[in-house]
Amino acid sequence: MALFVPAEPGPPEEVRSWVRTIGGAESNVACHLPALGVRSGWVSAVGDDPFGRALVREIAAAGVDVSGVAVDPVRPTGLYIKESGAQGSPVRYYRAGSAASGMGPGLLSRLDLRGVRVLHLSGITPALSDSCLALVRALLDAPRGDLLVSFDVNHRPVLWADHDVSVLADLAARADLVLTGDDEAARVWGTGDPGRLRELLPAVRTLVVKHGEHGATLVEGDAPPLFAPALSVDVVEPVGAGDAFAAGFLAATLRGADPATRLRRGHLQAAATLLTHDDVGTPLAPDVVESLLRAGSEEWAAARLTAEGLVLA
To answer: For 272, left (φ over 0), alpha (ψ -120 to 50), or beta?
Structure first.
């Protein structure tokens, strides 16, 4: 979607200048991956309008394959407005009847998943319309072979207000890899506890439960849950950090990294986005990343990322 953020300080109702950028859960993940050395493609629908042309161009400029994007001649491109703040950023969506909401199972006939290693979905898409729900179900039901299906719960209460949230739980249960925040898990499953969620999602190969600023827990196979604390960050605003974490975690997973490194890669990518108003931040400097990946637990805990760079206590 087209994303507008304030270009000047003050209450949103008094802001007159806004910056137009791009945003959206799946496109955010796709845009992060090329910077991490992983090829990605984004499949969606946009309107035949300036916003649609702009976001396809800018997503492509991030190194993402956009050949699977359809242009809807009737429905408009969705947009949203973010009222930025370090303690939280209220987001207002304007996407009812958008081009993306018109997607359906017919999209599968245009998808070529040969050679694709990860298919990343989110709980936002199935809430957009009945046809979008049918599309996600069809994707989860399709033969996978070696394909890994990743599902970020991304529960948005407003979107699911008129839907049965158990549908979202069912969709997640059919994925190979599930990412969820403990707060949204509590709304969907009634618990944010990683151990209990593992019991409720027995067929899921990999479960990642994010605990906000505290860290994230990985539950995989028969191994005991692994918790990795988040980095300390001078937060500009938090929206988009979850998508960044997903990208960092997935990129490390594709490279066969060990569990602790996969979690740290997620935290590092999230930190880069926390330092910006945009949904996709500039990646951290390679030397900072490598230094923190090698850091011991005490050094990691003492590190703080600021707009000026890495600070060690």
So the answer is: alpha
Alpha-carbon span 282 to 291, nearest angstrom: 18
Quick one: tokens of 122?
């989110």
> Model pTM?
0.92
Closest by Cα among 237, 241, 238, 204 to 221: 204
* CA-CA-CA-CA torsion sign (107, 109, 112, 118): positive
Catalytic residue of the set 72, 152, 182, 243? 243
**Bridge partners of residue 72, in order along the sequence:** 47
Q: Residue 55 and residue 62: Cα distance in Å, rounded? A: 11
CA distance readout (Å), 305 to 126, 149, 251, 288, 289: 36, 32, 21, 10, 11
Q: Is 243 a catalytic residue?
A: yes
10-residue stretch averages of pLDDT, the chain, 313 residues long: 88 90 91 95 96 96 95 95 66 88 92 92 95 97 94 91 91 98 96 96 96 95 93 83 95 97 96 81 87 93 87 74
> Which strands sit side by side in the sheet containing 215-220, from one edge to the other?
118-122, 148-152, 177-181, 206-210, 215-220, 226-229
> Environment class of residue 47 by beta-carbon count within 10 Å: exposed (0-12), middle (13-18) or buried (19+)?
buried
Which residues, other chains included, contact 59 with Cβ-Cβ below 8 Å and sequence gap of 6+?
22, 27, 30, 31, 42, 66
Query: CB-based burial of residue 167 (10 Å sphere; 0-12 exposed, 13-18 middle, 19+ buried)?
Result: middle
